[in-house]
Design goal:
By secondary structure, the chain is an alpha+beta fold. It contains two helices and three strands. It has a three-stranded antiparallel beta sheet with strand order 2-1-3, covered by helices on one side. It is flat and about 30 Å long. It comes from Streptomyces venetus.
Length: 64
């Protein structure tokens, strides 16, 4: 695990209408990540945005 994993454990993930998933950004707090996800989600596009926390192994949880 590197320093950025420790200091930026919250991810914003985007899923497009074809089911493709992308990491939008990494953030220090859940509140910061959620604010970004809500802002992007509020634009009215078909993409879905959500927040995940990196696990201790550096991998994000699976969202289904």
């Amino acid at each position: 695990m590197n320093d950025s994993t420790i200091t930026l454990p919250w991810l914003v993930i985007r899923e497009d209408d074809n089911g493709n998933r992308y990491r939008v950004g990494r953030y220090a707090t859940r509140a910061e990540a959620q604010k970004i996800a809500d802002s992007l989600d509020g634009r009215g596009h078909k993409q879905l945005y959500w927040v995940e926390r990196l696990g201790s192994n550096g991998a994000a949880a699976v969202h289904d």
